[in-house]
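Re: [ENG-882] Designed sequences occasionally contain unexpected residues at chain ends

Forwarding the minimal case from QA. Structure tokens:
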């Protein structure tokens, strides 16, 4: 599993606990990246379920397809979130750190809503980048390289705009100090210098859970 998955793992588990994803469920991980979430979902849905690991970048599809040899329930697909078309409707469409980088988050959420069955779930976990801290100082992130650094705060509006009912929201932030995964992650992702006494608060992920009308 990747470092991002390790440091943000708790918030993924919280989300999946809340929606009570059953064995045999069909899911889509949109903007799957290295597939950390897809493979976690694969554990939850088991061999009778299916996980579509979707990314706009064909290189990502190839990397996930290689890893998916051990998980026959994972199907890697190259598609854009804004124009999703799957062979079957899914019980859950999930994204993490996707909307922060797309051109139009509303189109991506609408695309996710389209592939979910009536009564199914849409879950988004996206950052509030400006809330990160190193000690008392705001995290220095090159926000010009990120299209929507605080898109987490827009999730409720985006989901309602797509006709979804938002049923839960919360935020969780990984936090660490010294030689922790959190500090290594920050140093890998930014040029931040962390003193030994500094507590690092990574950007919280705002999680929104929504339901499509049945
Ligand atoms: C920051 S990574 C996040 C990966 C993973 N969800 C995670 O949390 O570790 C964002 C991923 O979204 C993909 N992506 C960007 N725009 C996209 C779009 N419009 N449709 C689908 N995937 C997209 C990128 O190729 C990249 O792999």
């Amino acid at each position: 599993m990747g470092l991002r998955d390790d440091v943000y793992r708790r918030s993924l588990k919280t989300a999946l606990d809340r929606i009570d994803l059953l064995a045999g469920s069909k899911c889509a991980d949109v903007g799957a990246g290295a597939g950390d979430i897809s493979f976690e979902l694969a554990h939850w849905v088991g061999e009778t379920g299916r996980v579509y690991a979707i990314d706009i970048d064909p290189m990502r599809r190839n990397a996930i397809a290689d890893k998916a040899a051990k998980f026959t329930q994972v199907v890697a697909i190259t598609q854009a979130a804004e124009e999703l078309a799957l062979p079957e409707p899914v019980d859950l469409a999930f994204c993490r750190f996707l909307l922060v980088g797309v051109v139009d988050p509303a189109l991506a959420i609408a695309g996710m809503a389209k592939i979910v069955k009536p009564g199914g779930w849409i879950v988004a976990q996206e950052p509030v980048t400006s809330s990160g801290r190193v000690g008392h100082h705001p995290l220095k992130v090159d926000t010009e390289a990120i299209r929507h650094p605080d898109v987490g705060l827009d999730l409720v509006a985006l989901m309602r705009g797509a006709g979804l009912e938002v049923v839960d929201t919360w935020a969780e932030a990984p936090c660490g100090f010294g030689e922790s995964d959190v500090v290594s992650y920050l140093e890998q992702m930014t040029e931040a210098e962390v003193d030994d006494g500094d507590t690092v608060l990574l950007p919280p992920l705002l999680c929104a859970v929504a339901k499509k009308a049945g």
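QA comment: On inspection the terminal residues look reasonable. The radius of gyration is 17 Å. Proposing we downgrade this to a documentation issue.
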